[in-house]
Amino acid sequence: MIASSLTLLVPVAAEERGDRSGDAFGLAVVLGGLLIGLAVVGLFVLWLAVLVQALRIPDSTWEAADQSKLVYVLLMVLLGLLGTLLYWLVARPALRRAGAATAQA
């Protein structure tokens, strides 16, 4: 009787019980981490590409658009994706209009 009571106190491995739910959870954690890692790398590449694009625009185009290159580059560097979003929504359309007007002149 005492021996059978002691076997209840000994933890049994999940594999011995036939329980494999931990495998699915582990796979979900690994895949979730992989997806998050890919998203972080993708957002970093997007940020870097937009930053390089902003730096390559000539100063005359920035002046024609009445925008400050220094301000937007600093916003992108200091605020990261938020600064990039501000550049994308505010400065970039004005720069495109100024670039198109300069090309037509």
Describe this structure in words.
The chain has 105 residues and is mostly helical. It has one domain (24-99). It contains six helices and no strands. It starts with a helix and ends with a helix. The chain crosses the membrane at residues 24-49, 70-90. Keywords: Membrane, Transmembrane, Transmembrane helix. It comes from Nocardioides aromaticivorans. This is H+/Cl- antiporter ClcA.
Topology:
Elements: H1 2-9, H2 14-17, H3 21-56, H4 59-64, H5 69-79, H6 81-104
Helix pairs in contact: 3-5, 3-6, 5-6
Question: What does this entry show, briefly?
Answer:
This protein has helices at 2-9, 14-17, 21-56, 59-64, 69-79, 81-104.
Arithmetic mean of pLDDT? 85
Hey, roughly how much beta strand do the residues contain?
under 5%
Report the order of strands and helices. HHHHHH
Major sheet summary line: none
Q: Work out the radius of gyration.
A: 28 Å
Helix content: over 70%
Regarding quaternary structure, how should these chains be classified?
A: single chain
What overall form do the CA principal axes indicate?
rod-shaped
Distance between the termini: 99 Å
Protein name: H+/Cl- antiporter ClcA
Transmembrane segments: 24-49, 70-90
Keywords: Membrane, Transmembrane, Transmembrane helix
Keywords:
rod-shaped; H+/Cl- antiporter ClcA; 85% helix; 105 residues; membrane; 6 helices; transmembrane; mainly alpha; transmembrane helix
